[in-house]
Design goal:
The structure holds 2 protein chains of 2 kinds. Chain A is built from 9 helices and 4 strands; from the N terminus they run H-H-E-H-E-H-E-H-E-H-H-H-H. Chain A is α+β, with helices and mostly antiparallel strands. Chain A has a 4-stranded antiparallel β-sheet. The two termini of chain B are 23 Å apart.
Amino acid sequence: MKPSVQAQSDTAQSGFMAWRQHHRSVAIESLVRLAKHPLSSFVTMLVLAIAITLPSSLNLVVRNLSHLLGPESSTLQMSLYLSANVTASEAQQLASQLQSWPEINQAVYVSPSEAKQMFEQREGFEGLIDSLPTNPLPGLITLSVKSATLSAEQADNIERKAIQLNGVASVKMDLQWFQKISAIVVLLNQLATGLAILLATGVMLVVGNTIKLAIDSRREEIIVIKLIGATNAFIRRPFLYLGLWLGLGAALLAVLLSKISEYALTYAVSSLIDAYGANVTLLTLGLNDGLLLLAGGASLGLAGAWLAANHHIRSLEPQ
Amino acid sequence: MIAFEQVTKCYASGQEALSEVSFSIKTGEMAFVTGHSGAGKSTLLKLMMLIERPTKGHILINDVAVDGFSHRQIPLLRRKFGIVHQNHQLLSDRSVFDNVALPLIIAGFAPRDVGRRVRAALDKVNLLSKEKQLPEMLSGGEQQRVGIARAVVNKPAFLIADEPTGNLDPELSTQIMQIFQDFNDVGVTVLVATHDLALLARMPHRSLTLREGKLIGSGLPSSSMHHSSAQPHDADQPFVQVDI
């Protein structure tokens, strides 16, 4: 290596080292500035934390709802009533044909006499059908649908396909319940998304405003270092770190808040579940969710700081 | 080299601060800008630093027209200048050392070089013993010297001073001027705006006299002889090794 090239790479290296050193000192300096005003820093972070906790908790509620009540745990039931002239063997054939559909989990044939037996097991109906001249109950095929990923529209499709089969007189399904649940889950999900977008904007605005105040309080310093030849990137740097720390701190607080409310809620809900004798586990805020919150908080803080710093630093020029 | 070519500056208010001003200061020269307040001295310096842009005409720094520089180019241009302000413009919450170190940190010097250069600059203005103090603990003259140390720490090609002795008594003013003279002696181009005519009379340098925005004279003060200190230097090597 020629000496001049060596010298050049040395300069570049020391330039990079200086840049890294500056980042490190600015990052620490921003933290120290936050720590100098612990109460106001904490209050700002708490406001941000609440804004982050609200949508993330709602999202957790939605996930729990669809986990507890949604299509994963309850299968969709459909009843196919057969015409009176369908024989038992034809009905069995029909059942196995239905069984081969990809959407169908199980197709079970219930003969008129079996239906009569089931009917008469109900209290108050004993001997009711025997008093009639013939058994009025039709043959029946009950379908359970693989509904984990089934939309209401797909359920409608199955119903339409089934009613066109030979020997099927009518189809009934408990679609309403299914539709209601999925509609509520979809609605809550949209609500959580909308809230998340609104509150993320709020977080950026709050961080931006904090950064604006920080810039205002250092405007003389900014003008002086602009005169000495500081680039906007150089001036922006401490404020970006300030935003990053605010966002990260807020996200940490949000995780803490979520965990606290989660414990409180799990206790209340599990006693409710116990009372109904159900055996379910609640979904909680996991490690991945926590990391996602931290990353989200940090990026929102950084983004808010970036927008505010860019705007306000550009407008500060020496006179 | 600093050159103004037919530079006119009108402010938004319609006031014409400079009117078709042309002059040139050679590399290694020391010169004064003088005139009553409002004559356009500050505007002239602001144009040089691109704090303001000329309405008409061109400004050349080392033969490059800088008046059309973009916002991104301005910081690099300003690093070529060391500026001394009348009111020091020191950061009150930082020590003398940190104030002087600012230009080096902005320019991205390695930390080990920063300490060495800051101490050399403070030594040059006899303030090495006060590096840990805050600016407000120093006297006016000392603060001005910290400002000078900050202006020269980056070894700029040009040293620009705006009324550097405005708030100082005659004795301190002479001291400050001598420091500028010392830098000029080692090749730094120095431009000092001042209305202190008594001070000018004792310095053997050219002065550009402004009146109501017009350049009405650019010559040596009548009382002095030509001085040999102004030695032109190659523009590529604006700052010959100064022992600071």
